[in-house]
């Protein structure tokens, strides 16, 4: 079983608090799939306004968590790490579906599976579950780009 702690995750993602949405990688298979977790806590900054009477994690952040998981798997698969002059961008989201709300106290189980790589674009099938119940799914497309 291949796992990664938060210090190893920092080596593969530029993201930091409050935008790092992966707490641990439970397992991965290079070139195939990755399983990660995100612990959702009440003190996340987005809960103050979304929604004060009933805190719900925004759907776009569920997509972002899935995209961050794909970034880790892409870097592991390419045997590379982020460089200062490039970023791994989310370039597309297809077939996004949200099945139930995510609330403080939930633990997200994020699963991504590499579908294909074409001309530098990595396409993944991604799901997010809480307590074995599907909460979100999407096809996520990402690409490494140089920055000026």
TrEMBL record:
Reactions catalysed: a (3R)-hydroxyacyl-[ACP] = a (2E)-enoyl-[ACP] + H2O
Entry keywords, A to Z: Cytoplasm, Lipid A biosynthesis, Lipid biosynthesis, Lipid metabolism, Lyase
Homology family: Belongs to the thioester dehydratase family. FabZ subfamily.
Record protein name field: 3-hydroxyacyl-[acyl-carrier-protein] dehydratase FabZ
Biological role: Involved in unsaturated fatty acids biosynthesis. Catalyzes the dehydration of short chain beta-hydroxyacyl-ACPs and long chain saturated and unsaturated beta-hydroxyacyl-ACPs.
HAMAP family: FabZ
Matches recorded under Pfam families: FabA
CDD domains: FabZ (cd01288)
One annotated Gene Ontology cellular component of this protein: cytoplasm
């Amino acid at each position: 079983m291949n796992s990664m702690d938060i210090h190893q995750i920092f080596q593969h993602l530029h993201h930091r608090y409050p935008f790092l949405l992966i707490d641990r990688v439970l397992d991965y298979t290079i070139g195939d799939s990755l399983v990660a977790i995100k612990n959702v806590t009440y003190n996340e900054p987005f809960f103050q306004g979304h929604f004060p009477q009933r805190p719900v994690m925004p759907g776009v952040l569920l997509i972002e968590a899935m995209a961050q998981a794909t970034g880790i798997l892409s870097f592991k698969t390419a045997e590379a790490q982020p460089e200062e002059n490039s970023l791994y961008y989310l370039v597309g989201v297809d077939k996004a579906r949200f099945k139930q709300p995510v609330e403080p106290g939930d633990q997200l189980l994020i699963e991504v599976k590499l579908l294909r790589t074409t001309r530098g674009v990595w396409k993944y099938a991604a799901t997010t579950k809480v307590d074995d119940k599907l909460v979100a799914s999407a096809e996520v497309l990402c690409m490494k780009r140089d920055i000026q």
